[in-house]
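Final report, Chapter 2: Outcomes

The project's central promise was a pipeline that accepts a single protein chain and returns its three-dimensional structure in a standardized token representation, suitable for archiving and comparison. That pipeline is now operational. To close this chapter, we reproduce one record exactly as it appears in the project archive, with the input sequence first and the structure output second.
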Amino acid sequence: MKSQMKRWSRVGIAGIAATGALLLAACGSPAGAGGGAAGGGGDDAAPKTEELKVALITHAAPGDTFWDTIRAGAENSAGLNNIDLLYTSDPDGARQAQLVQQAVDQKVDGIVVTLAKADAMSGEVKKAVEAGIPVFSINAGENDFKSMGILAHFGQNEFVAGQAAAEQFNEAGKKKVICVIQEQGHVGLESRCEGLADKLEGTSEVLYVQGTDMTNVASTITSKLQTNKDIDAVLTLGAPFAMTAVDAIKDAGSTATLATTDLNPDVYAAIKDGTMLFGIDQQPFMQGYESVEAVRLYNEGGYVLGGGQAVLTGPAVVNAANAESVASQFN
């Protein structure tokens, strides 16, 4: 796993951004998928496609707005590709696995699933594959999707995302950073903090909080900052937790700089007004959009993106220097 992390590290953030641009240019619906032949010709001339039923099953926790963006991308893609999208979620790995089994029982035409708790998901996902259902993973599962028989994975490399954050903190001269994990045992979040520690010129420390309880998130961060005055930066790993950390830093009387991975309109506004230094965006809209379209592509001709490697949607750094270029995503 470490060798893979280093390999992605050598790719570089610029290379990932270029790959994402090429992916968007190349991944339009094929002629006949979603109702429009290339070059026009009108709806009457476009060949009709059969409706597909696709289950999108995530580990979203209630109130986490990050998943609204993934769902919006998936619904946009479903509308263009004549897909009946069935969305369900559960943060508990065992219950999420049960949702996969329910999708199999419904005889869906495709499944898109997150693998934050890969061990809990493996058995049911393999059953779906054995049933002949094309399965794609998004967001979490880069290191596990192949072993389950999943066709392709769409997401960012979490270790590289942590490294990207470290580079931003290095440029800002930050020397002691706490990395706030809201869900202990989530492999993707752990990898982000590992990437941060790998490239940070100073030191970093993981701080676990109970992500389902924002009062606990706030009090834990505040307490840590009050007892460790030398902490000069805080990295949260989700937009709602970043907004809670804004108040926690003030309550602690700390001058620590705040940044986050994953964005929403509130985080974007905080970056614009200087409350936050930067955000690391995995472009979740793309994850939802491309994975649902992938089911249509596979149905049309067995097409699979990625060549056996993860299809990277990030990390993309959003800071004061480039915030205007992505404004339409958050307005």
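Archive annotation: The chain has two domains: 27-154+283-312, 158-281.
This record, like all others produced under the grant, will remain available to the consortium after the project formally closes.
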